[in-house]
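Lab notebook, bench 4. Still working through the backlog of constructs that have no structural model yet. Next entry is a single chain of 286 residues. Request: give me the structure tokens for it.
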Amino acid sequence: MTAPTPTPTGTWTFTDDRGQLSSAPRRPTRVVAYIQAGATLLDHGIRPLGIFGSYHDGDAPDRAKSGLLALDEVAYFGAGETLDPERLLAAAPDLVVAVSYGGNLAYGIAPEAAKHLEEQVPLVVLDVGQGRSLDEVRERFAALAASLGGMEDPAAEAALDAARGRLRAASALPDPPGVLALSAAGADQVHLARPHAWPDLRALAALGVNLLDRPPGGGASWSTTGWSEAVALAPRIVLADGRANAVPVDPARFGDARVIPWNPELPASRAAHARFFDAVARALAP
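Model written out:
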């Protein structure tokens, strides 16, 4: 990763993944971000003044997807329809950072609220959906962070390379275990992740991980089914959605399979991705 340019004396500009050019008279320093984006910026040395959540979140930020954010040190402005744009604007941010899953819509902000915010303060939207690789998502956030004067710890690049190597080696062992990513919906239903739809799961597959999937049909990102169908896939490792909106998985459902937490909204940083790859590599180890 290249080092950020020195603080400019003129206008700050950044073109987001909608193709929208944002500008400000000076580099923004008071950033409010979607929780995943806020955790990512922190990994680049930029602490947001506040965060907001998704439509799945409630009155408190989701600890499972907050990365290294100290949640008692940042304001929480709500999620989805409960996000009050006037309260957010009262905190005097000079930049709002959101994510998108395609379609150019800011995720976690009602469209009318997003429009109102963008009339008052620059709004940057970065795509984290299935149209982007994990590397592309990470580099777009790195570019935004660099424009704001941030840079990830240089050691994180070596850590990520090493984690990739450990995961490749673990995946290449004889009789590779089947890995199933899912989000539990209750006693009767479970959402099985479509591996092609998630940048982090596609990255695992590219490193040799044997990801399990149901036959085509159903949703593009998730296939909702009963637990018996999930168990019939015979996974030996289960990546279980650990976000607050997901129901905890009872490991006994899968016999002696290893169940490890999975965050589908990982911070988009080298450090976070290295931790994720290492967790999967450890689970794959005999």
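Notes after review: The CA atoms of residues 239 and 260 lie 5 Å apart. Residues 1-8 have pLDDT under 50 and may be disordered. Flag for follow-up if needed.
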